[in-house]
């Protein structure tokens, strides 16, 4: 099993940081500290802590910044890092971005969005949930109070995910998908096909819409509750301030 990070996004709401950096490399450590951790650092550190030795990172917007740091990140975390280019990162949404990594999914992967600050307990919860034939397991926050922007999930204890979308009344949801997934090798081909169908239908769709496509086809997608965990998806400067507040506690 490998780690997989989607780090191709531009994150325009985080300018001026993202004038020169992809969102995954925006510092979440102390302001002005050249050694500050980034979201990518946190993901790589989590992967290393749970025993992964290889990571693939999908890059696109300002990808040269990731290429420049690759060797240093490999040394820092003891990982072999492969970079995968997304040639449509500034045009299409992340269903295509995850599809770009379809070849590495055959090894099995823990996927982490490149804008999610979260502790390693999330990866540990996903790994602990294996063993009952699940092929895809989503990390689910069932504690947080939800609003309109969250990626909401309705899940059944026996049948797994029924719906995953932002376009849902918060009161209907079981919880929020936090942007971390365990994908077993057996799911790789079917997931790749569902992602392709998704971005061919509409290139602005999310990879979570690919998960919904799988569910619609009768494929079971499961969830693992993460408990009461401090995490944040960084989309804007308020989120970044929250990320800096909690990252130092991990």
From TrEMBL:
GO molecular function: nucleotidyltransferase activity
Keyword entries, A-Z: Nucleotidyltransferase, Transferase
Every Nucleotidyl transferase domain range: 3-240
Lineage top rank: taxon: Bacteria
Pfam families given in the database record: NTP_transferase
Protein name from the UniProt record: Phosphocholine cytidylyltransferase family protein
Species the sequence originates in: Streptomyces zingiberis
């Amino acid at each position: 099993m490998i780690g997989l990070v989607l780090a191709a996004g531009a994150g325009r709401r985080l300018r001026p940081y993202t004038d020169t950096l992809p969102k995954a490399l925006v510092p979440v450590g102390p302001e002005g500290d050249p050694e500050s951790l980034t979201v990518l650092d946190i993901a790589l550190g989590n992967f290393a802590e749970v025993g992964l030795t290889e990571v693939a990172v999908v890059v696109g917007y300002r990808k040269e910044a990731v290429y420049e740091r690759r060797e240093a990140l490999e040394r820092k975390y003891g990982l072999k890092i492969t970079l995968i280019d997304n040639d449509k990162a500034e045009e299409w949404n992340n269903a295509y971005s995850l599809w770009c990594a379809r070849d590495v999914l055959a090894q099995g992967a823990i996927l982490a969005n490149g804008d999610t600050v979260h502790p390693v307990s999330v990866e540990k919860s996903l790994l602990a949930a294996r063993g009952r034939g699940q092929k895809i397991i989503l990390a689910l926050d069932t504690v947080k109070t939800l609003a309109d922007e969250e990626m909401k999930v309705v899940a059944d204890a026996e049948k797994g995910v029924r719906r995953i979308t932002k376009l849902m009344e918060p009161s209907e949801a079981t919880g929020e998908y936090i942007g971390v997934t365990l994908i077993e090798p057996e799911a790789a081909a079917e997931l790749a096909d569902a992602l392709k169908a998704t971005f061919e239908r509409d290139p602005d769709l999310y990879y979570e819409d690919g998960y919904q496509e799988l569910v619609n086809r009768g494929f079971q997608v499961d969830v693992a509750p993460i408990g009461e965990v401090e995490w944040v998806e960084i989309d804007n400067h308020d989120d970044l301030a929250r990320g800096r507040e909690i990252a130092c506690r991990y």
